[in-house]
C-alpha cells in the first residue's frame, strides 16, 4: 500500500501523544525527533523535513494547543494541517479552455508511465466530467509507443490520432488539434516522447511542441518509486518547459512517499493526480487533505464514498448499512457485497481508506481472491436459507453436505465460514469505533 512504512511510523509516534491531557515542550520535542526520522527514512527532502519540523514544533507548543481541552489531539491536528499544507493545501483542478479544445501535453521520462497515464486521464475526463477527449500519439521514438496508445484507445473506446513515426511531433500536435476542432472534441491529450535521461534534444523538441500547441496544461508524469530523483526530474522539466502540474504514478508500490511529500515544497508544482495501479481506472485526483488523513490513519472516507457512489448500487448500499448497524448481515449479503467490493478496486486499497484500518490486526486475514468468488458463490448456494442466516448451526455433517453440493472441499467451507465471522467481527469493531469517536467528539 502507498505510504505504508511512513504511515506506520507516524501513527505509532502520534499514538503516544494523542491521549495526553497535558503536553509540554519535552513531549513535543521527543515526538518531533521521531517524526523527523520517519520523514527522512521516507526519503523526504532534507530541507523540507527541517521546515516541516520547525513549523509543527512552533505550533505544537503554542497557545492553540496549550489552551485546548485536548492538547494531545490538538497536536495531531497540527501535524495533519501541516502535512496537508506540505502536499499543496487545496486540491488543484484541471484547466478548461474557453476556446475548446483544451490542450494537455503529457511529458516525462521513458518508463514513468506517460502513455498509460494518458489513457487513464482520458478515461477520468470522460467518467468524471463527461468529456470527449482525442488522444494524439506524438511519441515517435519509443518503439511501439504509438501502437500502445492505439491499443489503449481501442480498449477504452477513444479515437487516437497518429501520423506514424516519420512526421515531426510538432506537426502531429498541430494536426491533432485541428482534427479535434473539426470533430468537436473538448480535450486533446498529446502523448509526447520521453527519453531515459533528460537531454537538450528532448527539451528542445518539447519546447517546439509547446510553442505550436499552446497547451492549457503541461502535465509531467513521474514515477513515485524513484523518490528524490522524481523531484529532480520535476525541477529540470519545470525550468526548461514550465510545467503546470505533476502526475505521480506507481504510488501503489511506493511505501515511502518521499516524492509525494517533497515535490510541492521543492518545486512549487501541484500534484494533480496519482496513479495507483496498472488498470485504466487506477488514477485518482490528488487531495492533499485526504492524503494527509490517510497517512495519519484518520482514514479517507471521502474518497471511499466517492468510489462507492460511482460503482455501488445506492439502494443496496443503504440496505447494507442498515444490516451492518443492526448486525443482521447474512451469507447472502456477503455474496452480494463481495461483488460490490470487487468493483471498488483491490481490497487492501479499499481497506486502507478506513480510519484506523492498519491498526486492526484481524483485517490482514480477510482476503478475497478474485478467482475464488465463483467457488464461494457455489458454497453459499449449497447452503439452506437457515444456514445462510444462522451460520452457527452449520455443524460437521452440514459442512460435508455443503461441500458435496458445491463440489468444494470441507476445508474450503470452513475457511469461508471463518472469513464470514472475521468480516462480522470487523463490522462490529468499526461500528464500535465510530460510536467511540462520536462520544469523544473527534479532533477536527
Ligand atoms: P512511458 O514510457 O512513460 O509511456 O511508460 P508506460 O506508460 O509504458 O508505463 C511503464 C510501465 O509502468 C507499464 O508497465 C505500466 O503498466 C506501469 N505503470 C504506469 N502507471 C502505473 C501505476 O500507477 N502503478 C503501477 N503499478 N504501474 C504503473
UniProtKB/TrEMBL annotation:
Transmembrane annotation, as ranges: none
Biological process annotations from GO: SRP-dependent cotranslational protein targeting to membrane
Keyword annotations of the record: Cytoplasm, GTP-binding, Hydrolase, Nucleotide-binding, Ribonucleoprotein, RNA-binding, Signal recognition particle
Domain of life: Bacteria
One GO cellular component term noted in the UniProt record for this chain: signal recognition particle
Annotated localization: Cytoplasm
InterPro entries, sorted: AAA+_ATPase, P-loop_NTPase, Signal_recog_part_SRP54_M_sf, Signal_recog_particl_SRP54_hlx, Signal_recog_particle_SRP54_M, SRP, SRP54, SRP54_GTPase_dom
Cited Pfam families: SRP54, SRP54_N, SRP_SPB
Predominant subcellular localization, coarse grouping: cytoplasm
Enzyme class name: hydrolase
EC number assigned by the record: 3.6.5.4
Catalytic activity: GTP + H2O = GDP + phosphate + H(+)
GO MF terms held by the record: 7S RNA binding; GTP binding; GTPase activity
Binding site for GTP: 108-115, 191-195, 249-252
Record bears the keyword GTP-binding: yes
Domain annotation SRP54-type proteins GTP-binding: ranges: 270-283
PANTHER family hit by this protein: SIGNAL RECOGNITION PARTICLE 54K PROTEIN SRP54, SIGNAL RECOGNITION PARTICLE SUBUNIT SRP54
Domain comment in the entry: Composed of three domains: the N-terminal N domain, which is responsible for interactions with the ribosome, the central G domain, which binds GTP, and the C-terminal M domain, which binds the RNA and the signal sequence of the RNC.
Family statement: Belongs to the GTP-binding SRP family. SRP54 subfamily.
Function: Involved in targeting and insertion of nascent membrane proteins into the cytoplasmic membrane. Binds to the hydrophobic signal sequence of the ribosome-nascent chain (RNC) as it emerges from the ribosomes. The SRP-RNC complex is then targeted to the cytoplasmic membrane where it interacts with the SRP receptor FtsY. Interaction with FtsY leads to the transfer of the RNC complex to the Sec translocase for insertion into the membrane, the hydrolysis of GTP by both Ffh and FtsY, and the dissociation of the SRP-FtsY complex into the individual components.
Quaternary assembly: Part of the signal recognition particle protein translocation system, which is composed of SRP and FtsY.
Protein name: Signal recognition particle protein
Organism: Fictibacillus arsenicus
Organism taxonomic ancestry: Bacteria, Bacillati, Bacillota, Bacilli, Bacillales
Gene responsible for this protein: ffh
